[in-house]
Structures are given as structure tokens and as C-alpha cells.
Design goal:
The protein has 552 residues and is mostly helical. The protein folds into two domains: 430 residues, MFS general substrate transporter like domains (Growth Hormone, Chain: A), CATH 1.20.1250; 55 residues, no CATH class. It is built from 22 helices and two strands. The chain has a two-stranded antiparallel sheet. The two termini are 26 Å apart. The relative contact order is 0.16.
């Protein structure tokens, strides 16, 4: 296998630059991924201290909702005007939200901070993936995407541990302050190492599409969150939200079919691989966030472990995710075969969900570790491979939009998973606590009653009352896992129909001509493909593949 240098740079220097760029992108993804996991172990204490157990789900859902809405916007704007300035803006916005969260003194301010973080977080996720597509060919992209998937595993191990350590040490506010030094490193990487093609001309923005996708997504999340819990399904508010979802979605489709630069082009849906990967990604996202979003809270309450220990119990899942993600990425780069991975991944996720539904208080902790390990293997085989399938289905000039659209629907699944599971969990928990706790004891010694229960408060309760709280948490969450098994099975079945298209071994000619002088393009081709790749890319690219330096 040959690694040809970019114009004006020797091979070693070119590869070093790509790796420095990749490290900067990984820091950006770490910033977003860490934010979603560091709160998990700190959440019971945070909502207890701020007297907001009934609003617990919004601490998670607010971030996912905001990032979901902005994903297609960042993707389209990146294709139109370049990704560097957008990535810098996303990092800064995320850091501003982190500062507000660290200073929050009530649930309203905290949820607002999470919204601001989400507005930046959507860009961190999408732009990092799209930049890799700008500089690395699909055949080699597998190992890079695998390592990026590993970032979520690292963050998911470090996040709960840091969250637990901060909660028991300097205080939960440090789960927000920790984003500042990481954000500064990511910002430095974007400023100094990110050199991408310049985009000329003034982009035409799809403002109507942006507004309509925000309205549709918000209405969807609100009615799925509130329906059957805060409001009855036939309540005028819920009916209005359902109508808003339908009408704004129809209006969005009409607008996208007519606008010059739609944020989610309708022609994407003509590609079978895009449709299958997107639907499967939505279902996996729903199952993933629905299952693991509240597991640390459940473990602290039902198994009487502290915040740090609940983070440690998540390590098997994240370790398995890391191994599966990196190994699968290497296998894709070496063999070019990838279809089997999301199929196997979906099956493993279904098995893990079933196993988690059998959890009971007092079960051996090794059982939890095994079940979570199976979940991690399934997610590691699925997530980044689906993104690669989508990116390989479209030309590079559309890869940001395609990646963002795919991630948008996956995040819709994540948002629905967090919202629906959180709503069912919270409402069922409230009912069970009322049924099983004596009225005088339901406060658990907390000023806010059952709404202010924290793991520390529960540990001090009399044995009989403590048992009632533990059983309530268990019976409120574990039955939900079995309901999500069909989602993972359907995702696996859909991926059976994916057409395994060959992965390109070089960056496209249309972007290469703009990018070659930036010293950012890593052109890689198998020996057997060198002649064909050179012919397809033209004479200037041919000299690159052969290792010589072309003239300008």
C-alpha cells in the first residue's frame, strides 16, 4: 500500500499533518461525547440538589434536541461555506453553555445551559466526521472512523468516572468546568491544524427549511415526552403538538423540493443505502440512548453503589465499544467489506437489551458487566459503519449534507429514546413511590420530598423504606428494555438489504484540485488500483500517486 505525499510536502510531513489534524478533530468529538456521559453519574445528585427530579429527563433531552436541530444546518453550511469557521464557532458556543451550566442555581438555568451546549454540540459531531471525509479516501476512512467511534467509548468510560469523582469531590459543577480546558485544546487544534478548501461566493441559505425542521423536531419531542405523562393523549396541548409536527413536516418537504440549497436534499432519499442506514441508525439511537441514558441513575439507586462505582460498572460496555469500533474500522480498511458489521451489531444490541430487562436488585455485579459488554460490542460494530456506508454513497461535495442528514435522524432516535424512556421512567417511578412509600416518609429526609431523593438520602433511609425505593426504581426502568428489543432486530434486518458498494481508494478529483495545495489530503491506493486511480484523477493526481511532485 502506498501513501503519496501532498503537493509541496514530503510523505512523512504530509502524514504528520493529517495526524495532527485528526487529533484536533478527535478533541472536538471528545468535547461533545464527554458532555453526554459525564452528567450520567452526577445527574441524581444534581437534580436532587436543584429540586428537579421531575425535570430530570430534560437535562439530557435538552442537549440532544438542540444538537439534533442544528446537525443538518451545520452539515449544509459546511458544504456551502467551508467547515473551519463553523467548527470554531461550535466550540466557542459549547464552552459558553458549559460556563452557564457550571453557574446554574436552578433547573431552568441548567436546562438553558444544556440547550446552548447542544447548539454547539451538533456542529462538533457533524463537522468532525465531515472533515475526515474531506481529507481521507473511503477505503482508508474506515480506520479513522473506527477511532472516532472509539472516542465515544473513551468518553463513556472517562465521563461517568469523572462525573462520579467530581460529585463526591470538588462538586458536580466541575462536570461543566472540565469542558473549558478540553474546549481550549480543541479550539487550538481547529485554528492551527485545520486547513481546508476555500469556498468562494455567497451561500444561499435555506432559512425556511431551518425554521421548519426546528419546529417539527421540537413538536415531535414535546408530544412524545408529555403525552400520557404530563398531559393525557387527548389533551388539546398534545393534539396541537401532533398537528404541529405533521404540518411543519409537510411544509418542510414542500420547501425542500423547491429551494436551491436545501439543508436535507430530497434526492438523498433516492439512495437505498442511505434510507436503510438512516432508518437503522434511528432505531439503534433510540435503543441506545433509551437504554443507557438512565442506567447510572438506576445502578446508584437500585444497587446502592456510589457515583464513581456506577461509572466503573459502565466500563465493560465502553471497553467493548472501543475494541469493536477500532477493530471493525481496521477490518474495513484492509478488506473493504463492511455489510456484516451493522447486521451483527443490531443482533448483539437486541440480545443485550433482553438481558438488561432481567436485572433485579441484588444480582451479581458481574452479570451487569457482561450484559453491558454485549451492548458495547453491538454499538461498536454498528454506529460508525453506518456513517461510512452513507458517506460512500455520495460525492464528496455532498458528504457533509449526507452525513448530517443521517446523523440528524439518528439523533431523532436518540432524542425520542431519551424523551420517551425518560418520561415513562419518571412517571412510572413517581407512581410507584406514591404507592409504596408512606406519605410521611416519601420525602426521604429531603426538603423537596420524593422529588429531591438523592442516592445519599436513600442510603440513610430505614431498611423497609429503602427497599421500597430500590424496588420502585427497578420496576420503573427494567421493563422498558424488553420493549426496545424489536427496534434493534428491525435495524439488523434492514441492514441485510444494504448494497455493499466498493470503497474508493482516493479522494475525489473535484475536491482534490482545490485541496492539494493545502497539504491536507492523504491519497491512498492499493498497488493494484494505482493505475486506475491515477487515470480517474488526471495527470496531476497521477504524479501524486506515483510519488513525484507535480508542477503548478
Amino acid at each position: 500500500m502506498k501513501h503519496a505525499p501532498a503537493l509541496g510536502a514530503p510523505p512523512a510531513q504530509e502524514k504528520q499533518h493529517v495526524m495532527l489534524l485528526f487529533v484536533g478533530l478527535m478533541l472536538s468529538m471528545l468535547l461533545s461525547a464527554l458532555n453526554q456521559t459525564v452528567l450520567s453519574t452526577a445527574l441524581p445528585t444534581i437534580v436532587g440538589e436543584l429540586h428537579g427530579v421531575d425535570n430530570m429527563l430534560w437535562v439530557i433531552t435538552a442537549f440532544i434536541l438542540a444538537s439534533t436541530i442544528t446537525m443538518p444546518i451545520y452539515g449544509k453550511l459546511g458544504d456551502l461555506m467551508g467547515r473551519k469557521s463553523l467548527l470554531i464557532a461550535a466550540i466557542v458556543l459549547f464552552m459558553i453553555g458549559s460556563v452557564i451550566g457550571a453557574l446554574a442555581n436552578d433547573m431552568g438555568v441548567l436546562i438553558t445551559a444544556r440547550v446552548i451546549q447542544g447548539l454547539g454540540g451538533g456542529g462538533l459531531m457533524i463537522l468532525s466526521q465531515a472533515v475526515i471525509a474531506d481529507v481521507v479516501p473511503p477505503r482508508e476512512r474506515g480506520k479513522y472512523m473506527g477511532m472516532m467511534g472509539g472516542i465515544y467509548a473513551i468518553a463513556s468510560v472517562a465521563g461517568p468516572l469523572l462525573g462520579g469523582w467530581f460529585t463526591e469531590g470538588p462538586g458536580w459543577r466541575w462536570v461543566f468546568w472540565i469542558n473549558i480546558p478540553v474546549g481550549l485544546l480543541a479550539l487550538a487544534g481547529a485554528v492551527f491544524f485545520l486547513k481546508l478548501p476555500k469556498h468562494s461566493g455567497k451561500p444561499r441559505l435555506d432559512l425556511a427549511g431551518m425554521l421548519l425542521v426546528a419546529i417539527a423536531t421540537t413538536c415531535l419531542v414535546l408530544f412524545t415526552t408529555w403525552g400520557g405523562s404530563k398531559y393525557e393523549w387527548n389533551d388539546p396541548i398534545i393534539l396541537s403538538l401532533i398537528a404541529g409536527t405533521v404540518l411543519s413536516s409537510v411544509a418542510f418537504i414542500l420547501v425542500e423540493s423547491r429551494t436551491a440549497e436545501p439543508i436535507i436534499p430530497l434526492h438523498l432519499f433516492k439512495d437505498l443505502n442511505f434510507n436503510l442506514s438512516t432508518i437503522a441508525g434511528l432505531l439503534i439511537g433510540l435503543a441506545m440512548f433509551g437504554a443507557i441514558g438512565y442506567l447510572p441513575t438506576y445502578l446508584q439507586m437500585a444497587f446502592s453503589v456510589n457515583a464513581t462505582e456506577s461509572g466503573l460498572l459502565m466500563i465493560p460496555m465502553m471497553g467493548a465499544l472501543l475494541v469493536a469500533s477500532v477493530v471493525s474500522g481496521q477490518l474495513v480498511s484492509r478488506t473493504g467489506r463492511y455489510k456484516w458489521m451493522p447486521i451483527a451489531g443490531g443482533m448483539l444490541v437486541a440480545i443485550a437489551l433482553f438481558l438488561l430487562s432481567t436485572l433485579r436488585p441484588g444480582a451479581p455485579l458481574w452479570e451487569i458487566c457482561v450484559y453491558l459488554g454485549v451492548m458495547g460490542l453491538g454499538l461498536g460494530l454498528s454506529m460508525q459503519t453506518m456513517v461510512l456506508i452513507v458517506q460512500n454513497s455520495f460525492p464528496l461535495r455532498q458528504v457533509g449534507t449526507a452525513t448530517a442528514s443521517n446523523n440528524f435522524f439518528r439523533q431523532i432516535g436518540a432524542t425520542l429514546g431519551s424523551a420517551v424512556v425518560g418520561s415513562l421512567f419518571a412517571s412510572r417511578l413517581a407512581e410507584l413511590l406514591v404507592e409504596r412509600l408512606p406519605a410521611a416518609a416519601s420525602g426521604g429526609g429531603a426538603a423537596g420530598g420524593s422529588n429531591s431523593l438523592t442516592p445519599a438520602a436513600v442510603s440513610k433511609l430505614p431498611a423497609a423504606i429503602k427497599e421500597s425505593v430500590i424496588s420502585s426504581y427497578n420496576d420503573a426502568l427494567t421493563p422498558i428494555f424488553i420493549w426496545m428489543v424489536p427496534l434493534a432486530l428491525i435495524a439488523a434486518a434492514l441492514m441485510c438489504f444494504v448494497k455493499e458498494k466498493p470503497l474508493a481508494t482516493a479522494v475525489e478529483h473535484d475536491v482534490l484540485s482545490e485541496s492539494i495545495a493545502e497539504g491536507n489530503i492523504l491519497i491512498t491506493a492499493d498497488d493494484a488500483d494505482d493505475e486506475a486511480a491515477a487515470s480517474a484523477l488526471g495527470s496531476s493526481t497521477q504524479s501524486l500517486v506515483s510519488g513525484s511532485r507535480p508542477t503548478r
